[in-house]
Design a protein that fits this description.
Layout (H helix, E strand, L loop, with lengths): L4 H9 L16 H5 L4 H4 L3 H15 L3 E3 L6 H5 L4 E2 L7 E2 L22 H15 L4 E7 L1 H9 L2 H8 L1 H24 L4 E5 L8 H7 L1 H13 L3 E5 L8 H6 L4 E3 L6 H10 L3 E6 L1 H6 L3 H15 L4 E5 L9 H12 L1 H8 L23 E6 L6 H17 L4 E6 L3 H10 L6 E4 L2 E5 L5 H12 L2
Parallel strand pairs: 1-4, 4-5, 5-6, 6-7, 7-8, 8-9, 10-11
Antiparallel strand pairs: 2-3, 10-12, 12-13
Helix pairs in contact: 4-6, 7-9, 9-11, 15-16, 15-17, 16-17
């Protein structure tokens, strides 16, 4: 009898060498595309979300899958207003603690916000596919939730009011553990904290503010006999070692990190690593064979132990379904796929772009290269940091976000030679790479160019 996908995932978490590399498509709002429903409707309607998930399960051949990928569920319950979109998860519009440091929230109840919808869908998906497929319950990580509640002020607080930051992160940890309990009750096999903002802080800051909370989170999940995960986005290379010290069962990374080098670190700590098919350049902008090629390349490089093939993060809405179907085929029948790809050569698309004349600009140009500030929390806060400068400097500066969901911006990225996102440039010079600046730091950099 052939092994199920769920058994394959659980063997991987037990650090066994497996028959084939397991595959988890981090389907978020992309399942809405399968049923022709926009993201805003999908994430607020139980029947639509269930229908989309089951369709993705049928088409993509997953060994595991998340039930919902939305980092704003907890924030919404705690009073953040959301801005909804048709092709992306909602983003946080307002921050309840932007002008206050009084943490007076109550911990979430099962009846709060969209939790009843999520819990019902989890139970129903568990009943439909839970015997064969490992199910993930994803929760907003404590640093990202703290940033949702406090906004950009949090990054200055890390320098000016460390005690407050720790209180806020400790509260956010309590929220995570409370929601984790709800998800465990529905039968989720893996509970993962999704904390994209981790890539934007230093190892020292991680150790100071997050090491103890995360160590407690993962220990608590072990006590409940549930596997754990830590998702990061952006270039978190500098933080991999300190993340491993908190002892999650798995770490999920995106294409900003060299996964081959990263696995050497995670293997020392016997931690499963998951990733990192590029979300935009391959999954969104490539064709089916491009996706199969990168899937086989990762499988060959990383092997069949302590590795789960997956996208770098949740899949953009407009990723063609055939690309995900193709990855599933490559995973389940790699040799047949190799034959199919034997004579395939990736098409090189030359895109003409006009670059700014950086040497002759009339005023400083701030460019923020992002995956998409609407879908990537770290990108969103980097873009917000830049946009705040418009309020301070007014017409003395120009500011633009360059999302790499646009092929022209991918070409610009290559011309400049940028490797990591998000990155903030001034007059074409990278100034903040995967580190969100404080207001004071960014103002100081801009003023250097105003003085020229």
């Amino acid at each position: 009898m052939s092994i199920t996908g769920k058994e394959l995932i659980l063997k991987t978490f037990a650090h066994e060498r497996v028959e084939r590399t397991p595959w988890i498509p981090y389907t978020g709002v992309q399942v809405g595309k399968l049923i022709n429903e926009p993201a805003d409707k999908l994430l607020q309607n139980e029947e639509l979300l269930l229908t989309g998930l089951l369709e993705a399960h049928k088409l993509y051949g997953p060994d595991g899958m998340p039930v919902v990928f939305d980092l704003q569920i907890e924030a919404e319950i705690l009073g953040c207003e959301l801005m909804w979109a048709e092709k992306a998860p909602p983003s946080v519009k307002t921050h309840p603690l932007s002008e206050s440091k009084e943490i007076q929230f109550k911990l979430p109840q099962k009846t709060d916000g969209r939790l009843p919808l999520v819990l019902n869908v989890m139970k129903r998906v568990k009943k439909e596919v839970g015997d064969t497929t490992a199910l993930y319950g994803l929760i907003c990580g404590p640093l990202t939730l703290a940033s949702h509640l406090r906004g950009m002020n949090l990054f200055m607080d890390m320098y000016e009011d460390e005690a407050f930051v720790q209180r806020l992160i400790d509260f956010s940890t309590d929220v995570l553990l409370r929601v984790a309990d709800f998800y465990i009750e529905t039968g989720m096999d893996i509970i993962a904290a999704v904390d994209p903002i981790v890539s934007q802080i230093s190892p020292d800051s991680f150790e100071q503010f997050l090491s103890k909370p995360y160590s407690m989170i993962f220990e608590r999940l072990r006590e409940k006999n549930v596997h754990s995960g830590l998702f990061v986005c952006g270039d978190a290379t500098k933080n991999l070692e300190v993340m491993c010290h908190t002892k999650p069962d798995s770490i999920s990374i995106d294409e900003n990190i060299d996964i081959v080098a990263a696995k050497k670190i995670t293997d020392v700590h016997n931690i499963v690593i998951s990733g990192n098919i590029p979300l935009t350049t391959v999954m969104l902008l490539g064709n089916q064979r491009d996706n199969q090629e990168i899937a086989l390349e990762l499988i060959d490089q990383l092997g069949k132990q302590n590795f789960i093939l997956a996208p770098g993060c949740d899949i953009p809405y407009d990723v063609p379904p055939e690309n995900l179907i193709g990855i599933g085929q490559a995973v389940h029948d790699p040799e047949a796929t190799r034959i199919l790809l034997k004579n395939y050569h990736k098409e090189t698309k030359h895109i003409e772009v006009t670059m700014p004349d950086y040497k002759n600009l009339q005023k400083p140009l701030i460019e923020v290269f992002t995956v998409d500030s609407a879908t990537c929390a770290a990108c969103g806060y980097m873009a917000a940091a830049a946009m705040e400068m418009k309020d301070y400097f007014g017409d003395k500066v120009d500011i633009i976000e360059r999302k790499i969901t646009d092929p022209e911006n991918v070409a610009r990225l290559e011309i400049i030679g940028l490797k990591n996102l998000p990155t903030l440039l001034i007059n074409g010079e990278p100034k903040f790479i995967s580190i969100i600046p404080t207001r004071a730091q960014l103002r100081k950099e801009i003023e250097k160019y105003l003085g020229n």
